[in-house]
Amino acid sequence: MQITKLMFKNFMGYKQLSLPKSNDDLPEGLILISGQNSYGKSTILEGVLFAFFGPKIFLDYTAFYPCFP
């Protein structure tokens, strides 16, 4: 499976977001999401998880964020 576009509408802090902003598909290979603190990088990843697993994914973050001693 390959994700070619991301579209969020009224998801957490995003009123509307489309990636990529043009009509092109996302490029193949590694995708880098960068930005300053509190700019919504993690929210984009949480949106992808929500799309695949639904709201139950937010009940147990330990499955995706393991703790290392």
Automatic annotation (TrEMBL):
UniProt cross-references to Gene3D superfamilies, sorted A to Z: P-loop containing nucleotide triphosphate hydrolases
GO terms (BP aspect): double-strand break repair
InterPro entries named among the record's database cross-references: P-loop_NTPase (IPR027417), Rad50/SbcC_AAA (IPR038729)
Domain Rad50/SbcC-type AAA, chain residue ranges per copy: 5-55
Record-level Gene Ontology MF annotations: ATP hydrolysis activity
Pfam families xrefs: AAA_23 (PF13476)
Region forming the signal peptide: none
Protein name: Rad50/SbcC-type AAA domain-containing protein
Organism per entry: marine sediment metagenome
Source lineage: unclassified sequences, metagenomes, ecological metagenomes
